[in-house]
Amino acid sequence: MSYITIPKTQQLYFPENIDQCNICDTVFLDKDNLSFQIQGVIKPNSNDILTPTFASDTNWGKGNFTIANGHAIFYDPTASPGYYGYLTQGGISFVQDRYYVIQITYTQVSNTAFTGIISLTSGSGVQVFTERVTFLPNTAGETVEVFYLHTWATGDMTIKIEVESASDISGFFVESVYQYVVNFVEVYGVKDGVETLLIDQLDVPTSVANGAQLCGYNILYNPTSAFATAYPSNDFKTDCYQIKIYDDGDNVTDVQKSYLSQLFKVVDTEIIDSCLLNGHLKLIWWGDCPTYGLCSSFLSGGLPQKNMMWVRGGVYKAPLDRREQIAFFSPTGVGSLIYSFTTVKRQLKIAPYSEYLHEVLERVFYFDNVYVGQGLNTAMKIVSDDASLYTIINHENGYYSGGIEVLESGKELIKSSCCGDSGNEDS
């Protein structure tokens, strides 16, 4: 878990090997909702470990647990419903404004699933964090994780792990407990080759206050406020920018790896001349299921990360797609249509852009939810099928144009014979 990962189907994208002289894509985005998602990593070191195993001289406090063979074992097989055991340890250092993951590895040999409660209490006795987790049955070496953004002052905290038993859970034991910092990255804006720090990895609470979202190992950054501070007199419409981010390096050499986005321009679509938007396609896309890492809120039906951009292009009517058709011919040679299933097909054409933008667009059309609109017209939902192929034309000057045929959702028509006399000749 050394390097961050970056989805390639989002508003800002980070090619593996970007050409420093690449084209500045004029991508119209909502300037107030410019965003990109990255996945952070943990870098274990000795200061992050609560206890790798439970030794006989452990400083864990316990109730209804016993320490043996390097494990904390829940030992009362006759515990009545609602009875619980606990493990607790104080003196755990938490640094202000850091984002932590607490990992608990356990084994449960019985068929009972039950609830656990993970909590943190400050030195003054204030409970600053609590979260319920589920310990699964019939598992060995299973890991449960909770995430915690520590906004309190740097200091020692007490961690407590409680288990609530509904029946016999004598086969439950905790193998290890770890506390790690989840490291994100430093985010820079790049203009004319000059890097300007936008977001420091230690400023996660500030980023969250400015609209960033945290979920699991992922963070959805919104650098708009940072951009406004870094470039107060610059014009998103005329100036070309890039985003550059750094990871924290691997665990051996500690060498950082950087990721550079494509060059882009941003235009505030709320104040732009609507006539200018008429020559653009508005693309909106998101997924129904979590796709990246452990975070289910960015790309799920509950709290989707809805990506949107405007690209030069058009949507055109294509011939109907005949999904299925059955015809009948009588002995006299008279034919009639018994059944037909047709749907409306659209052809999307995208103007010349860099290959990096087309690399993203090619993936966009295979998301669960894709909407497209011409200018300010209402966006329609489109669906790709096996015949939908994003084709790219190389213009030999660094520019590529693209296109794809898709189906318009909700425009299906099924026709079937209703008279039962398909063999009769028409009069």
Describe this structure in words.
The strands form six sheets. Strands 3, 5, 6, 8, 11 and 13 form a six-stranded antiparallel sheet that branches. With 427 residues, this protein is mainly β. It is built from four helices and 28 strands. It is flat. It is 6% helix and 46% strand.
- The N- to C-terminal Cα distance equals 75 Å
Unreliable segments of 5+ consecutive residues: 290-303, 421-427
Tally of contiguous helical segments: 4
Structural class: mainly beta
Question: Quick one: biggest sheet?
Answer: 6 strands, antiparallel
Give the rounded overall mean pLDDT: 77
From the alpha carbons, calculate the radius of gyration and give it in angstroms.
29 Å
Helix content: under 10%
Short synopsis of the structure:
This protein has 427 residues and is mostly beta strands. The chain has four helices and 28 strands. The strands form six sheets. Strands 3, 5, 6, 8, 11 and 13 form a six-stranded antiparallel beta sheet that branches.
